[in-house]
Write a structure and sequence with these properties.
single chain, about 130 residues, alpha+beta, five-stranded mixed sheet, four-stranded mixed sheet, 2 helices, 9 strands, globular
């Protein structure tokens, strides 16, 4: 693998700035590049590209949660309780704590971003 190419994902949206703010705040990924069409968030090991797509609904349109998606990215967080508060303030949401589950050394909660994309947050299990 080339030294400056990291694994990553692209999320298409009608509201690039809003979605980039959500993922920057929720994941701790830093803005590495931005222009009129994309915002690239990244770390030393991962890159998330938020890409404008004119056909997508813009901010202010209530999102439809896309439960039937074939891919669901997950992101580590320090605390699922804190993630719930932050997600709601940024236009996303997490399922309630009674729907969290545990496996392989982590505790997880399903969530959706402000566009309705289904994602997951994970904290280290106690």
């Amino acid at each position: 693998m080339a030294a400056n190419i990291r694994p990553g994902a692209v999320i298409f949206t009608g509201s690039r700035e809003r979605l980039a703010r959500f993922y920057e705040a929720m994941t701790g990924l830093a803005v590495r590049f931005t222009d009129d069409g994309i915002t690239v968030l990244g770390s030393e090991t991962f890159e998330l590209v938020i890409h404008s797509l004119a056909a997508e609904p813009a901010a202010g349109t209530p999102p439809v949660v896309r439960e039937d998606s074939y891919i669901k990215p997950f992101f580590p967080v320090r605390s699922l309780a804190e993630a719930l508060e932050h997600a709601v303030a940024l236009g996303g949401r997490l399922r309630p704590p009674n729907e969290e589950w545990e496996a392989r050394g982590f505790r997880a909660c399903e969530a959706s971003d402000p566009d309705g994309n289904v994602i997951q947050f994970r904290e280290e299990a106690p």
